[in-house]
Every structure is written in structure tokens, then in C-alpha cells.
């Protein structure tokens, strides 16, 4: 079911009015009894970080639960690199009770495999903000309104998108850096884009350009400027949310972040609120303890895959008693397709990032395509992440035997949106005489949906059938971020939701 904007607002207005959070709470750190907080946030990525800061600013004490590690740059070998991947890149800790054996580690990225597609999601303090291309692209208005007819694009454009960019400290690539030898691939991409008749974009990027300048000058070891930016950034240039939103929330004294803390179950408690069962682990997956937390308000921000998994698991176990059959529905791939080409005009020397140049192909008005140019440390091999609005959505389900989330998705190779992506890419490659190169297929970097606004949740993310349980992350988006990567829209939507929930002070 897809509601109109008017119908959506009418359906959710009463719940929204009842959901404004009061100020103040008590604090406790004794694990012998349930630790009671006013608010619990599960997940510390873009949405969870927004929630933590805005709650703190309103005087509301919260605790942020993050299954992954806290990563702090302590030199040029803090993060793995694309040229030398190691265990730090992968979350390999098995689910509790699964009986899986082998080397385990709380690495940066979890891969969840399905029969024909796999989804990648962040597993660290800061979530996806540590392991994305670093670009915050605002979707075009027409594409946005086709995907989110119940939201005001004008409000997002004038209030929430700028708020996120300012809070993170993001900005477009400066001209002097773009003109440097390390960024010749980006300049060539702009020329290719313009020759193809597409529109070149310089979106805001969540990187400290002064640090990149120091890399280029040889003052510090090179990282982003030689294409080493996807797995954190060893120069410290990436402005992930642990450095802004979360840092400010924690410095207020009203937010606590617990890393290496996996949530196993969510339970309704009487007369109100929720109990969250956690297990504290080491970076190697060793169980330290299990304990329970209680809160009046629960915010789900673990990302599409894990927010949906926790909701389905807790509902199927009977711990969440509300009747909501829409959890797991309208899941999608954001129309992602990672394409590669061997470019004859790009230097074989490593090229700089982040993915700070993008392009829009609007030649097919029914299926617009956005490309995010992602130069790597591999020289002439150039990556383009093509994104479109997928024609169909799938669903997620929960397997209680293996304690895993299952992806139910039809192969997206012959749909109109998929053909539009390939046609646009072929035209782009033709401008430079390059050749398409085989690369990773069937891997999705932006899984979205599973608890979608208007179907599973209302306009402020409150899960239908439950009170004071809010979904605030990419699960709310119906399988698409409207032809762009979802980071900016997820964070901006979380800002919108939190503003609606917390009264002005």
C-alpha cells in the first residue's frame, strides 16, 4: 500500500501528537538489574548519530548500542586498505548459538548473502559513515517526489539537507585539489560526462580537504588522495559521524555509546516501554556478558538489514506483540549497479578520492540514472556506481533456525531501470574509447526498506501496532533514495523525524 501525502499525514497525525518526548530521565549503570534509560538507540550510523545529538540537546539522556568497534585513527595502519584487505574489513562474528566456527573478528563491513544478491552494511561506531564513498548527494526533486510523495521536498531542500551538511562539515571538492595530479581521473570523468550530454555534479563530500591538501603536499602519509578511502581513512580525512554528531552528543554528558554490544532481542515491558537484551563481546567475538536495558522510548537505527531482522525476530518470538505484517516488505537495492571500465586516458598511478564527482543522465525521463565516480588505487580501472529507482521491490524474512535475515529479491538485470543503467554506462564509456571491465556483481551497497513509511510506520517512524518504538534509518525508505546514494537522505529524514518528536526548548 502506498499512501498519498495527505492520506499519510491524516493517518499518522494522532500518533505524532502523542509521541512528543518529555524532558529528563534517570541514569543507572548497575548491570545486576535492568539499566533504565529514557531512550535507547540501536545503531550509531547516520540516523542513530542524529538521534543521539538531538535527544541530548533536548536534555534527554540516551544510550547508543553499537555491535561494532570504535575506530580511532592512530597512524597509517589503523584501517585496512583496498590494496591489502585483512580481517579488519569484515564482520565475521556468527550469530549467538549458531555453532559457527573459524576465525572471527568485529570488522568494518558485514556482508549478508542471498541467492542472487548480497547486501553490505557497516558494523562499527559511526556505521555506514565510515565505510561509504564520502559523498552526500541530494536527489533531484522529481525523482524524490516519485519515491516519497508523502514528504515535502521543499522542507528537505531548505531545512534538513543543509542541516546535515553543516553538522558534518561537508563541502564540494575545492578547485585547487581538483586541479592536482592526483585528481586527473576526476577531471577526465567530468569531460566524459559533458561529452555524453550528462550533467556533472560536485556534491558535498564529508572529508576534511585541508588534510587531503597535506597528503598531496607530502606532509602526511597519503590515503584519500591515492584512492584509499572506502574503509575508513588512515589520514583521518573522513568526517564520519563519530567525529561530529556522536562526539557532540557524548560531550554533552547525556549520551553514552556502548561499542561491541550486540542486541539479541527486543521485548515490550509493562506498563510501557521496552527491554533490550544485549551481549557484550570482545573484538574477536568472545562473549563477556549478557544483560538487559530498559527504556521508555526505543529508536531503531541499525540499518535496513539489521533493524528489520531485530523487529522480525522479536515479533516472531512473541516478545513484540503488535500485529504488523508490513515489517520486511518493500525492501530494495537502491537501483545500485557497480560498473567498471578500463580507461585509456587515465594515469596508471593511483587516483584520489573520495567519490566527489557525480553525474546525472536525464535523457530517459522515466528512468534517470546517477553515476558516482569512484577512483581507486588501481589506476586505469575506474568504477562507476550507477543508481536508479528500481522498478520492483522485494522483501526480507527471518530464519529462526540460523538466526539470519533472508533476502527475497528477483534478479534485476532486464527491468527497464536496469537496462537504463547499462545503456547510460555504455554511452559514457563510448566517449573515451575505453572498455567495460568485469567487476563485483550482485553486491548491493545501499540496502533500503523493510519498515517503510506509510506501510510499516507512520510519517515520524513510529511502528504501527506499537507505541514509542521508532524506526529512523534507511529501513523507512521504500527500496530507493531517488537515484542517489542514501546517506544524506537517511540523515536528513532522521533530522526531520527527531524535530517532530522533540518539542522546541
TrEMBL record:
PROSITE patterns from the UniProt entry = TAT (PS51318)
- Domain Glucose-methanol-choline oxidoreductase C-terminal intervals: 443-494
EC numbers listed for it are 1.1.3.6, 5.3.3.1
Which superkingdom heads the taxonomic lineage of this protein's source? Bacteria
The coenzyme or cofactor needed here is: FAD
Recorded metabolic or biological pathway in which this protein acts? Steroid metabolism; cholesterol degradation
Checking InterPro entries in the record gives:
Cholesterol_Oxidase, FAD/NAD-bd_sf, GMC_OxRdtase_N, GMC_OxRtase_C, TAT_signal
One Pfam family this chain carries?
GMC_oxred_C
Task: List, for all copies, the residue spans of the domain called Glucose-methanol-choline oxidoreductase N-terminal.
Answer: 43-315
Entry keyword set: Cholesterol metabolism, FAD, Flavoprotein, Isomerase, Lipid metabolism, Oxidoreductase, Steroid metabolism, Sterol metabolism
Please state which protein family the record places this protein in. Belongs to the GMC oxidoreductase family.
| PANTHER family cross-referenced by the UniProt entry | CHOLESTEROL OXIDASE, FAD-DEPENDENT OXIDOREDUCTASE 2 FAD BINDING DOMAIN-CONTAINING PROTEIN
The protein depicted here goes by the name Cholesterol oxidase
The organism is: Candidatus Marimicrobium litorale
Amino acid at each position: 500500500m502506498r499512501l498519498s501525502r495527505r492520506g499519510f499525514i491524516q493517518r499518522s497525525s494522532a500518533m505524532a501528537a502523542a509521541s512528543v518526548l518529555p524532558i529528563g530521565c534517570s541514569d543507572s549503570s548497575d548491570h545486576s538489574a535492568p539499566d533504565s534509560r529514557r531512550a535507547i538507540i540501536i545503531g550509531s550510523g547516520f540516523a542513530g548519530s542524529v538521534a543521539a545529538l538531538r535527544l541530548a540537546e533536548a536534555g534527554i539522556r540516551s544510550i547508543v548500542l553499537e555491535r561494532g568497534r570504535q575506530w580511532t585513527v592512530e597512524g597509517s595502519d589503523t584501517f585496512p586498505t583496498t590494496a591489502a584487505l585483512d580481517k579488519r574489513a569484515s564482520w565475521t562474528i556468527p550469530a549467538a548459538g549458531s555453532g559457527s566456527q573459524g576465525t572471527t573478528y568485529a570488522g568494518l563491513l558485514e556482508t549478508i548473502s542471498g541467492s542472487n544478491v548480497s547486501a553490505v552494511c557497516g558494523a562499527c561506531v559511526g556505521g555506514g559513515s565510515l565505510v561509504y564513498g564520502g559523498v552526500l548527494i541530494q536527489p533531484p526533486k522529481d525523482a524524490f517526489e516519485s519515491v516519497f510523495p508523502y514528504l515535502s521536498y521543499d522542507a528537505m531542500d531548505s531545512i534538513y539537507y543543509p542541516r546535515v551538511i553543516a553538522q558534518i562539515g561537508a563541502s564540494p571538492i575545492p578547485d585547487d585539489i581538483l586541479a592536482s595530479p592526483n585528481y586527473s581521473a576526476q577531471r577526465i570523468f567530468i569531460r566524459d560526462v559533458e561529452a555524453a550530454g550528462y550533467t556533472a555534479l560536485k556534491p558535498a563530500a564529508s572529508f576534511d580537504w585541508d588534510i587531503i591538501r597535506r597528503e598531496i603536499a607530502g606532509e602526511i602519509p597519503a590515503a584519500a588522495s591515492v584512492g584509499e578511502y572506502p574503509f575508513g581513512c588512515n589520514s583521518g580525512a573522513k568526517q564520519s559521524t563519530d567525529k561530529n554528531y556522536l562526539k557532540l552528543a557524548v560531550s554533552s554528558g547525556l549520551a553514552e555509546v556502548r561499542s561491541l554490544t550486540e542486541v539479541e532481542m527486543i521485548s515490550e515491558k509493562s506498563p510501557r516501554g521496552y527491554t533490550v537484551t544485549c551481549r557484550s563481546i570482545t573484538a574477536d567475538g568472545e562473549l563477556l556478558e549478557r544483560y538487559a536495558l530498559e527504556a521508555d522510548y526505543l529508536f531503531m537505527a541499525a540499518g535496513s538489514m539489521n533493524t528489520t531482522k531485530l523487529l522480525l525476530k522479536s515479533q516472531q518470538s512473541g516478545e513484540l506483540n503488535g500485529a504488523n505484517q508490513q515489517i520486511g516488505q518493500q525492501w530494495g537495492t537502491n537501483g545500485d549497479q557497480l560498473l567498471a571500465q578500463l580507461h585509456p586516458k587515465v594515469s596508471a598511478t593511483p587516483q584520489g578520492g573520495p567519490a566527489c564527482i557525480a553525474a546525472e543522465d536525464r535523457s530517459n525521463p522515466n528512468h534517470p540514472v546517477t553515476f558516482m565516480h569512484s577512483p581507486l588505487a588501481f589506476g586505469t580501472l575506474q568504477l562507476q556506481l550507477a543508481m536508479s529507482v528500481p522498478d520492483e521491490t522485494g522483501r526480507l524474512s527471518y530464519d529462526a533456525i540460523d538466526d539470519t535475515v533472508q533476502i527475497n529479491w528477483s534478479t534485476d538485470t532486464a527491468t527497464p531501470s536496469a537496462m537504463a543503467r547499462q545503456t547510460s554506462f555504455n554511452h559514457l564509456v563510448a566517449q573515451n574509447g575505453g572498455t567495460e571491465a568485469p567487476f563485483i556483481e550482485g553486491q548491493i551497497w545501499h540496502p533500503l526498506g523493510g519498515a517503510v513509511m506509510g506501510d510499516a510506520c507512520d510519517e515520524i517512524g513510529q511502528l504501527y501496532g506499537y507505541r514509542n518504538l521508532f524506526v529512523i534509518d534507511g529501513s523507512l525508505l521504500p527500496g530507493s533514495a531517488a537515484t542517489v546514494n542514501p546517506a544524506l537522505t537517511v540523515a536528513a529524514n532522521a533530522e526531520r523525524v527527531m524535530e517532530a518528536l522533540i518539542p522546541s526548548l
